[in-house]
Amino acid sequence: MVFDLEMIQKVYSDFSNKLDVVRDTLKRPLTLTEKILFSHLSNKEGVKDYKRATDYVDFAPDRVAMQDATAQMALLQLMNSGRSRVAVPSTVHCDHLIQAYKNAETDLDTARVTNQEVYDFLKSVSNKYGIGFWKPGAGIIHQVVLENYAFPGGMMIGTDSHTPNAGGLGMIAIGVGGADAVDVMAGLPWELKMPKIIGVKLTGKLSGWTAPKDVILKLAGILTVKGGTNAIIEYFGEGTETLSATGKGTICNMGAEVGATTSIFPFDEKSAEYLEATGRKEVAQEARKIVNCLTPDVEVVKNPEKYYDRVIEINLSELEPYINGPFTPDAAYPISEFADAVRKNSYPEEMEVGLIGSCTNSSYEDLTRSVSIVEQAKRDNLKIKSQLIINPGSEQVRYTAERDGVLSAFEEVGAVIMANACGPCIGQWRRTEEKSERDNSIVTSFNRNFAKRNDGNPNTHAFVASPELVSALTIAGSLTFNPLTDTLITEDGKKIKLEEPTGYEMPPKGYDVKDAGYQAPAENSENAPITVSPTSKRLQLLKPFDAWDGKDYQDLPLLIKVEGKCTTDHISMAGPWLRFRGHLDYISDNMLIGAVNTFNKETNKVLDPETKSYSTVPALARKYKAQGLGSIVVAEENYGEGSSREHAAMEPRHLNVKVILVKSFARIHETNLKKQGMLALTFVDKNDYDKVREDDKISVLGLTEFTVGKNFTVVLKHKDGTTDSFEVAHTYNEQQIDWFKAGSALNTMR
């Protein structure tokens, strides 16, 4: 089945003519990123040479995708938008709420029972508004999108930060919050700051133990977790043509870990072959007709420094396998240096669990290359030292891998096949019955490795690697094992060296599936009722946030001054809290409970200035709200990095936090704060962060003259009677200022 073929054909039929207008106006060669962005300008936007990282531009994406955890809040907002049907093709994917515990069948049955209320809600809203619904067990959103919806030259947004996975097929695919998705589903233009473009030139060809994952692991070490902020990473060069479509998806997927807006590869024959193999021959044929529109201009490739804001070159032939971590995805080590790093940093050397899967690495190619290593172990009488867990990416991948004997080969050595779902990658892992905070190490093929992310244990040292390397380290049971150089001892005492992994980019017998898990919306279902119980603990209808009162913020108490990394996992944890993603009041009890208070170096422990005792962060915020007081959060760099979850913005808004003042923001989170009517500010002088004291009263002056580019003044009233004042900056444009004044972006739609 080819979804939305008429829409794709329309995009392609207009593409060349649109680019002619762009070239006539800009009078220069175009990158691939520019071709897709300019061809998706909103109708009201004219073609001009927008200033990168400065100008806000309105776009018209082709489609929207939502996963079940974020879809709840997005659809609750859509219900308040006044729409009766979505304006663009949209889908909901049930992948985040399935906890990995026993095995696929048992866990899926449990999820259907425990999440029935949420699944029924998502299905009924999808049916009412014309949204495609992918049932629990159908697969992880980004793998399903790659198999069914991604198309070269298209533009989509998704309510998950790893939406850029579709860039592996040459699509501009951007992770957003639910309010952004509502805009597009409601037929409104979607706003984005025109991104910078980082060109990554790939030469050579991968071989041996090196995998596509190693490209982005190395790049993460170069760019760090914020080096791609407000930028699109565009891969080019002859090396791109040697990578499989799913391998390119892996690279684009994890571009989120460097803060990139998205990542993209040019269309080539590998793309066409994947489209054909996944039942989309018509799309491949149409794309081949406009191949020049789906690749950067020749002049750009010849002189990349003239057209990209930064150029990085990676020789695939010389690239080593990498392992990144722990606790941050940009701590990058080539395998040749990793054992020394483990010993130097006293990381727990025993590797307890290997996990293969997630939206980053769960393709047929990933599974076949990994199983080739496991099969060696069985053949050569090697004992598998660590636990091995597998999460296939989709029902199509699972069914095909089962047919071809891949899953049974894993199971024969003791691996557990979990559901086609996110599972441990997003904290949905019931690892043991015991609640422990002991030091231990795991290695995953996932994308993120923040503290507590996988199993809730802050002392689990999670390292990220390719599926192939995960398999090898699982066999060895040690972080210091290097399969390129080291040997292992068999059960009968022989020394052997693991052979290089082998596998298939796509199944030789083709993909197959009996029930992919898709449910189409019914026709003429606009009047179908949607019921949310007022006593539900999972769902809560939304009430509009109050509009700004027109006054400066005066004498706000400090809620928390955060020290160090503060990701969306720190602001709004996943794991067991996922069950409350549709209930704003309940989930607000996890607000900032993972953030470190700089004054006592503890989490979820902040000073109540009235009682002089310590309180949890949500409890203190609720107390201030009950007293009619707002509050302020102060933090450091790249605040809100990680997931696209807008709960990290909606929870503080719900608990009457007025201002988030930081050294710098991650892109998606800053937008989410603006969408919800929050005031997102940055220090002009980052040293002013040090002036904020625990019991300060904080004022933000100049709000009555809120205009584009005009800074505010912050005044700190210290308890000893002294004061400090300093400038703070914002990035609001006129439309975003209107959101603030109205109380939220959604309020302006009413």
SSE arrangement:
Blueprint: H1 5-26, H2 32-39, E1 56-59, E2 63-67, H3 68-78, E3 90-93, H4 104-114, H5 116-129, E4 132-134, H6 141-148, E5 155-158, E6 172-175, H7 178-185, E7 190-193, E8 196-203, H8 212-223, E9 231-236, H9 245-253, E10 262-264, H10 269-277, H11 281-289, H12 298-302, E11 310-315, E12 322-324, E13 332-334, H13 335-344, E14 351-356, H14 364-379, E15 387-390, H15 395-403, H16 406-412, E16 416-417, E17 440-444, E18 460-464, H17 467-476, E19 488-489, E20 495-496, E21 518-519, E22 553-561, H18 568-571, H19 584-587, E23 596-597, E24 602-603, E25 606-608, E26 613-615, H20 617-626, E27 631-634, H21 647-654, E28 657-662, H22 667-675, E29 679-683, E30 697-701, E31 712-717, E32 723-729, H23 734-742
Parallel strand pairs: 2-3, 2-5, 3-4, 5-6, 8-9, 8-11, 9-10, 14-15, 14-17, 15-16, 17-18, 22-27, 27-28, 28-29
Antiparallel strand pairs: 1-7, 4-21, 12-13, 19-20, 22-30, 23-24, 25-26, 29-32, 30-31, 31-32
Helix pairs in contact: 1-11, 3-5, 3-7, 8-9, 10-11, 14-16, 14-17
If you had to describe this structure to a student in words, what would you say it looks like?
The protein is an alpha/beta fold and 750 residues long. It folds into 3 domains: 5-315, Aconitase, domain 3 (2-Layer Sandwich), CATH 3.30.499; 322-496, Aconitase, domain 3 (2-Layer Sandwich); 553-749, Aconitase, domain 4. Helix content is 30%, strand content 18%. The strands form 9 sheets. The protein has a 7-stranded mixed β-barrel with strand order 22-27-28-29-32-31-30. β28, α22 (667-675) and β29 (679-683) form a beta-alpha-beta unit. The longest helix is centred in the N-terminal third of the chain and has 22 residues, at 5-26. The radius of gyration is 25 Å and the shape is globular. The protein starts with a helix and ends in an 8-residue tail after the last helix.
